Amino acid sequence: MTRSNSTAVYITAASVLNAAGTECVSRDSQPQTALPLDFDTARLAHCVTAPALPAGVYDRKLSRSLEPQGARLLYCAGRLAETLRRLELPDERIALTAAIPEVDGPSSCWDAVQAIGEQPADLLAQFFAHTPPLHALMMLNSSVMAHAAEALHCKGPMGGFCSQGNAGLDALMEAAAHLSEGRADAAVVVSSSPNITPALYLRDVTHPPVNPGPWIFGEGAAALLLSTGPAKGAQSALRIAGFARGYSAQPERGVAVGRDVIERALSNEKLCLSDVGQVVADGQDPQIAALFTSAGHALEHSKALVGDLGTSALLTEIAATWALDSSPYTLLLEHSRGGHWGAVLLARALLDRETMESYP
Amino acid sequence: MSPTRIVITGMGAVTGFGFEWQSMWQKMLAGEHCIRPWQPEGVEASAFPLRYAAPVDMRLMPAHLQDHPAWGLSLEKRTRFGWIAATQAIADGGLSPEQLRGAAVLSASGAPAHRLQDMLLSLPDNPAQAPSWAQLMTRQAQVDPDSSLCQSNDRLARVIADGIGSEGPVINISSACAGASQAIGNAFQMIRRGEVDVAIAGGADSVLSLDTMTALYLLGAASSEQRWGTELCRPFDRHRSGLIAGEGGGFVVLETLERALARGATPYAEVLGFGSSLDAYKVTAPDPEGRGAVLAMQAALTDAGLAPRQVDLINAHGTSTPLNDAAETLAIKTLFTEREHYRRLLVTANKSQFGHLIAAAGAPEFMLTALACRDDRVTPTLNLHDADEQCDLDYCAHQAVKRKVDVALSNSFGFGGLNTSLALGKYREPSR
């Protein structure tokens, strides 16, 4: 955690989209069936159809220029719009941070590719004629931040992150820092998993992942609304109580780095692992499993339900904790394919009537 | 308790001027530029509307960098530039592997653009059928392993971290043209709040390919003017017509002053504050009133505990696009309005000399701002012969300016209205 976290930061709303639907589901629900991919039937994944954007939030024409991972992200962000609006904050006091997939969608336009295939001698003319004018903005996938900012009226501090599975943590930490250090009064944290395309698999041919899996990917998105007070009328509040991050590409150092990350995430509350009632982490990851051999925790996670959501995995788990869990302390642990480690400690407190009424 | 002071102790840059910051600094002070005729591979120059760019000249690579591990791995060009720049910054800072074990690594790299040559592999043998990912998958062995299709977008941050054995936070930034500035600003904040005590931060990018340049052209962001030759990047000029793309990378070492002094390092300058904002206006254009830019600069000054009147220099985003330069000038005039301080400010636009490095742009510009604070010398804005009537500040036109620079801002504004501003100050030794 940090030295300057004087103001408490709460999760006050959340939205998700993945193979299990658009509501948070319990991690012990019936797993969804992963299906063979049309471009490689030997591989399984949890794909979703790009959703229609929430009515009344975005420009109606926007969906025409969005790639699917952007559409998923904006769908989840849009569902927070009404809760955010009710906070009645100045636009300049609303931060926006984003966890953006490290693998982009199809940047070359299929129409252009086909046209060039039909008339290869006229490459440039075909390329120009069949590439949409706003194509560059589709490639710059941070443009989703611009769309979200415009629709949700976020003019405060911002940050876009693209660090594989840890990008969600980066975005969360940045947003929490803006609130705790007084630069914003609310923050929208958005994330999307990568599109399931060959690009997701081709990268492993030249650069095998540090953390090798097995991986069944899923498509999804998640968004959180953070504020400096609990949600109005809430019976309980979920506070961000600690976080830490680290990295190791060396398998022999991974467990030590993971342990250090956990200890630092717990240190702000002066806790040790045995004080934590619930741990959300993938016990199939041998390095994570090695960290919990003696603590007696039953690890739980959502991968079996919705696949590995990569960039949006952590925010999806936080959303589920916000919506469904009741443990006083929940520790969420991420270990990315690239070797990033991240931990978040969430604290739930029941609110008395006086506290409930003291927030707008 | 006095606030933690954070200083710059190492710098590395790869630009069209060469493979280290020293030659970039000297050539830019001398009023040189590295913009030259350019054409995409496999396309006749006369057929492509964008004729100029600021590419990295491989002939300038010094012998000692020819053995850098970046050349031995399958990596995108931008990743190689960034890794070399980071290696140079670490060497410049005199940091040993032991001193980097807990370092944070923050890098920005632009969106990966899949190469047209790779995407053409998706065409089926039967021309009546549409291209498909499935077809591409069957030909995966033919995909160029150095291409973005075979790389994660966060590859640069991880190769740097792996190279130095860091176990600290490894963060890849994605905020378009504000990326490298966000990386440096986030590194500054992480050190200040005690998460780490040293960070390697910056970015690298290269958009000099048929695909991405076409996309920039179609968007109307890049200049296809022919009449100015290599002088067509003209920030704040009446005849400016769009950005000129460059490529390269830049990284800096940031650390606490206490740590820097303890190991005998000499700071270049001090980082004083960081601010960011969103235009929330349009994805295709900046807010014409420059309101987002005002918010970012104001936030940086507030973060630094400074008043606008204390600022001597603004290293502008200055893209040479009609919209940006007018909006940025208006923003400066809005924020620095008290006693018309904007009339006493110096403003410079480095992109007139090395083009627009897109996601990496903020890194070398931050370094040049730090050097201005150190040496009291400001690099010029080139090609500003006929100032736009909306652009009426002192832009250091044509030649470098020698003037005291105690406090400066370095601005970076990304496509879609993602704004950052970094506040820097002249390094002063702590009082005993």
TrEMBL record, chain B:
CDD domains from the UniProt entry: KAS_I_II
Family matches, as Gene3D superfamilies: 3.40.47.10
Organism expressing this protein natively: Pseudomonas tehranensis
Family as reported in the entry's similarity comment: Belongs to the thiolase-like superfamily. Beta-ketoacyl-ACP synthases family.
Cited SUPFAM superfamilies: Thiolase-like
Pfam family, one: Ketoacyl-synt_C
InterPro entries the record matches: Beta-ketoacyl_synthase, Ketoacyl_synth_C, Ketoacyl_synth_N, PKS_Beta-ketoAc_synthase_dom, Thiolase-like
Keywords assigned by UniProt, alphabetized: Transferase
Name of the protein: Beta-ketoacyl-[acyl-carrier-protein] synthase family protein
UniProt pathway: Lipid metabolism; fatty acid biosynthesis
PANTHER family, A to Z: 3-OXOACYL-[ACYL-CARRIER-PROTEIN] SYNTHASE, MITOCHONDRIAL, POLYKETIDE SYNTHASE-RELATED
Endpoints of the signal sequence: none
Ketosynthase family 3 (KS3) domain sequence ranges: 3-426
Lineage: Bacteria, Pseudomonadati, Pseudomonadota, Gammaproteobacteria, Pseudomonadales
Keyword Transferase: yes
